[in-house]
Amino acid sequence: MAMTVKNNPTATLVLGELNKNVSKLGKQLSKVANGQKIVSVGDGTADYSISERMQAQIRSLRQDIDNTKTGRSMLQVAEGGIQGIVDELREMKQLAINAANDSNTDADRATIQKEFDEKLKQIDDIVATTNYNGKLLLNGEYGRWHTAMVTDNPNGSSNIVSTGVIEPSGTPITLASGNHTITTAGVYVLGTGFTGDITIADGLSGVKITQSNSAQLTDVHIIGPTSGNANLWIEGLNIKNTTDQSCIRFSGSDNVLSIKGNNNIDYSSYMASGSVSNEKATINVGGGLTIEGTGTLEMISTHTYSAMIGTDNNEISNADLTINSGTYVLTGTDSRQNVLNSARAGAVIGSGICGSIGDITINGGTFDIFTSGDAAAIGSSMGVSYMINSGLAGGGDITIRNANITAVADGGACIGSGVDNTIGNITIEDSIIHAENKALNHTVLANGIPWLQYLIGSGAGIGSGSYRYYSDGANAGDIVIRNSEIFSSSNRGAGVGSGYKSYAKNITIENVTGQITSIKGEDIGKGLEGGVGTINISGYPEPTLHETSISGTPLKIHTGTKANQRINCYIENLGTKALFNVKTDEELENLANVRTRASAQRLLGSLTDPSVEGPLDKAINYALNEMTQVGSYINRLEQTENTLTVNHENTTSSESTIRDADMAKEMTEYTKSNVLAQAAQSMLAQANQNSSSVLSLLQ
C-alpha cells in the first residue's frame, strides 16, 4: 500500500462501513425500544400497509364492542321499565278479579277503582321516565309503526300519477370496473369497488342498475341514450363522485327514471376550482325527464353553479321535469349544520346558473330540501346580467299537487325564483308545504357590512327570490294556492309573495290552512321594499284528519365497521292507551273501569267464550311480548359482543405477527450491529493512525 498524506482511502472505506453499522444500529435500537420489527414504512411497505389497516380494524372493533355494551345497557333499562309495567298489570288483574267478586259492594269497587287508576298513572309514569341518556325508550318513538294524524286533501284528490313503465327483469349481469356500453335491456349489477362510466346505447329502453352490496362506490356515471326515451331504474345505489360530471345524465326527450329502495348520491367532496362554466347537474334532465318510484333518493352536493336535479350551469333549456312519486332528501350544501359562506347559485330542483329549465311539475312524493345561497330550493337559479338584459327566465311554470314538501332556503325562494331571476306561474294544490326562508349563518362582516346582504333570509317562502331592480313585475308569475296546508315563513321576504326588493304578480289563496308569516315583510304580499300585484284570499276550512300508519325508526346499535352493520331494535309504545288499544282518554276511562261487577268482568274476558282474551290479558301479553323481544335483542347483543371480542383478539394476534418484534432475535441483531459499529470505530482510529507513520520519513 502506498504511503500517502493528502488522501486516506483506508480511513474513508472504514468510515463508510462505520456509518452503515451506526445506521443499522439505530434501526435495531428503535425496534428494540418499540418492541416492533416494523417501525416505519421503510421497514416493509406491504407489511406496514397491512398492519396499519389492521390497526384501524382493531380500533373499530374495540368501538363496536363498546357500542354493544352500551346498547345492551340501554335495552336493559327498557327491560326494567317493561318489567315494572308487567308488575302493575298483574296487580291490576288481581284488582279486577277482586272487583268482579260479589263480596264487594259498589262502594268497595269505587275504592278499588282509585287504586286501579293509580296503577294506570304509574304505568304512564314508567313510560315517561324510562330513558337512557335522555332518550325515552317506551313511548313508541322506536316502534315499527307510528299512528299519525294527517290531513286529507280537501278535494279528495290523492291519485298517484305514474308513467306505467315496466321494471326490467332477467338474469342480472355483473359489471366490473371500467367503462361499459349497455346494448341489451335487463338488470345490471355494479360489482364490488366498481368505478367507471355506463352508457346506454341509443334506442335502448329498459335498463335497471343496482349494486352487489351497500358499500359506497366512487366516480360512477350513468349516461342515458342520446335518442331519449330512456326507461332507467335504479335500486340500492350508494355512489360518491368527486369530479364535475353528472352522476346520471339524460339526452333527448321522454326519459323516465324510476327509483326503488334506498339510493344515495354524494357530491360533498367536490369543490369547484378555476373555471366552472360547464359545471354539471347531478341528475341532468336532458330533453325532458319524469322521475317516479317507491324508493328514496338522498343526495348531497357542493356543486355551486349547477342544479342537483335539473340543468347544468350555462345550459339554456326548455326541457320539462316531472316528479310523480318517491321520497327525496336533498342537501344543497356540504352539510346542514355549517353553511358559513356557502352560497349555492344553482337550484336544488330546477335550473343551473346562467341557464334555464322548462316547466317543473310535482304530482306527488315527499321532499326534504335544504339549500343555502342565491338559488331557489325548487325553481330557478340566481340570475345574471345577460339573462336580465335578454329577458330570459330561469324557468317555466311550477305546478305542485298531492305532495308533502319541506324546504329551507336563504336568498332564493323555497319554491319559486332565485336571486335576481324569474320563474313562471306557481300553482300549489292539495299539498302540505313547510317552507322556511331564513338566514343560514351568512354573517361574515367586512367593515361592519354583512357578507352577501341579499341573503340572510331575503327570499319569499313561496314566490320570488330577493332583488329584481330592473323589473316592475311584468316578468313575474302569478301565485295560486288551493286546498292545501301551508306553513311558510321568511325573514325579509314575504311568507307568500315577493322577496326583498323583488316582485311577485297576482296572488290567489283559496281553502288554505296552516301559518304564513314574515318578520320584516308582509305575511302574504310584499317582501321588504318589494312589490306585488292583486291579492285574493278566500276560505279557511278546518282540515279533515284521518289516521295512518307510517314506518317507525328503530334504535340502531352499530356493531360493525361498515355503515350497514347494525342491529335495529324496535320497542313499541307501552303507554296505557297502547296497552288497552284505545285512542282517547275517554275510551281508556270507559274500558279501564271496575266500578261495577259487569265492567270488571268485561276487563277479564267473555262470559260465554273462555278462549276470548280480556283487555287486561291482552295488555299483559302485549307487554310480555315486548319484554321477550327486548330480551332477544339483549341476547343477540351478547352474542355479537362475543363474536366481536373473538374478532378483536384474532385481528390483534394477526397484527402482532406482522408488526411485533421477536425480542430475542432483535436483541441478537442489536448486539451484532453494536459490535460491528464498535469494531468499525476501532478500525477507523487505526486507519487514521496509519497516515501518521509517514511523518517518520520526514525526520
TrEMBL record:
Organism: Selenomonas ruminantium subsp. lactilytica (strain NBRC 103574 / TAM6421)
Protein name stated in the entry: Flagellin
Protein location: Secreted; Bacterial flagellum
Domain Flagellin N-terminal: 14-141
Pfam families to which the protein is assigned, alphabetical: Flagellin_C (PF00700), Flagellin_N (PF00669)
Superkingdom as given in the UniProt entry: Bacteria
InterPro entries linked: Flagellin, Flagellin_C, Flagellin_C_sub2, Flagellin_N, PbH1
Entry's family note: Belongs to the bacterial flagellin family.
Residues annotated as domain Flagellin C-terminal: 616-698
SMART domains: PbH1
Function: Flagellin is the subunit protein which polymerizes to form the filaments of bacterial flagella.
MF-aspect GO terms: structural molecule activity
UniProt GO cellular component terms: bacterial-type flagellum; extracellular region
UniProtKB keywords: Bacterial flagellum, Cell projection, Cilium, Flagellum, Secreted
